[in-house]
Amino acid sequence: AGRLRSAVAPDDCVARWGGEEFAVLLRNVATESDLAERAESLRRVVTATPIGKLRLTVSIGAALGSPTATLDSLLDLADSCLYAAKHDGRNRVSLRPSVEPGLPIAGDEPEAVGVARALAFAAGLREGIPEEHADRVAGLAVMIAEQMRLPRQTVLRCRLAGWLHDVGKLAVPEQILTKPGPLDDPEWEIMRTHPVVGEGVVRRIPILTEAGAGVRHHHERYSGGGYPDGLAGTEIPLEARIVAAADAYAAMTTDRPYSAARTPERAAAELVASSGSHLDPDVVAALVCVLGLDGLAADRAA
Questions:
Q1: Which of 83, 209, 244, 282 is the most core-located residue (most Cβ within 10 A)?
Q2: What integer pLDDT is reported at residue 229 of this predicted model?
Q3: Which residues lie below 8 Å from residue 226, measured CB to CB, with a gap of 6+?
Q4: 254 pLDDT band (50/70/90 cuts)?
Q5: What would the 3-class secondary structure string for the chain be?
């Protein structure tokens, strides 16, 4: 900590971030070249002098801020760069994120995945839909996140939220879940509680808590007016925007009691048509791209 403090300006910030991690916020860094130079100076000051016989090393992941970047996205990107620095041999600086998909957070992925699958299975049984729906939403969410080159933590949050997005339906009465026709207003009021209930379930399980925001907000609308909180645009957590598009496509291409399955081409065209209103345009573009339907969807939408 002392060595890091000695290498930053008075108005920069050095913070303890974990058992073996520090976070450093640097002002007046305009380019990636500036950032790489500043980060390398931190690495050198930490490693320059042994402590007794102990020679120190430090791996650094660095991300350049921008006016549109959120704190969460910067942290995810910096952490993915840190993983890349460790993977490439340690004791170095990386400004490029790891490209390995599906990596676990703190070794918790197998247990988290197993619990998420079990909850999704239970919710699917209650609603009378196949387990494959949640699995498909999770798979599509991962494909979208990887197409958007998001950090590994975000990819995992998308995967978990994809499985868990409907877990709150466990608290919705069966006669509403399985009703073959349209819901009336009081029934819709009950149905709209499932994202909040689902978040409450997820937040109570420590290894799943990262998925809470994606579960709560997957029925928000990009243009506003969704539920439960009426968020709009980038106010909606990115993983929720991704799960919303994945869920919409999976639902449209599956036979339901109240609707026949659409073709992939028709579903992709409808996604494009709802881009900017119901769904995030960047997320839709990524989804139709990974489906190989981007050109056809654009033609249909036109």
A1: 244
A2: 96
A3: 219, 220
A4: confident
A5: CHHHHHCCCCCCEEEEEECCEEEEECCCCCCHHHHHHHHHHHHHHHHCCCECCECCCCCEECCCCCCCCCHHHHHHHHHHHHHHHHHCCCCCEECCCCCCCCCCCCCCHHHHHHHHHHHHHHHHHHHCCCCHHHHHHHHHHHHHHHHCCCCHHHHHHHHHHHHHCCHHHHHCCHHHHCCCCCCCHHHHHHHCCHHHHHHHHHHCCHHHHHHHHHHHCCCCCCCCCCCCCCCCHHHCCHHHHHHHHHHHHHHHCCCECCECCCCHHHHHHHHHHCECCCECHHHHHHHHHHCCCHHHHHHHHC
Exposure on the CB side of residue 63, measured as CA atoms within 13 A: 22
**Hey, what are 300's tokens?**
């249909």
Assess contact for 63 and 153: CB atoms under 8 A.
no
Give CA–CA dist 285/298, Å, rounded: 10
Query: Pick from 211, 219, 215: which is nearest to 188 by CA?
Result: 219
Residue 84 · residue 94 · CB < 8 Å: yes
Please give the model's pTM, rounded to 2 decimal places. 0.64
pLDDT: is 49 or 257 the higher one? 49
What would the mean pLDDT of 121-128 be, rounded to a whole number?
Answer: 80
**Regarding beta strands 93-94 and 60-61, do their DSSP bridges make them parallel or antiparallel, or are they unpaired?**
parallel
Please report where in the chains the tokens 């380019």 appear, as a residue. 31
Contact 97, 84 (CB under 8 A): yes
> Is the pLDDT assigned to residue 109 strictly greater than 70?
no
Helices 238-252, 264-273: axis angle to 10 degrees equals: 140
Nearest-10 Cα torsion for 34, 152, 226, 123: -170
Residue 236 scores a pLDDT above 90: yes
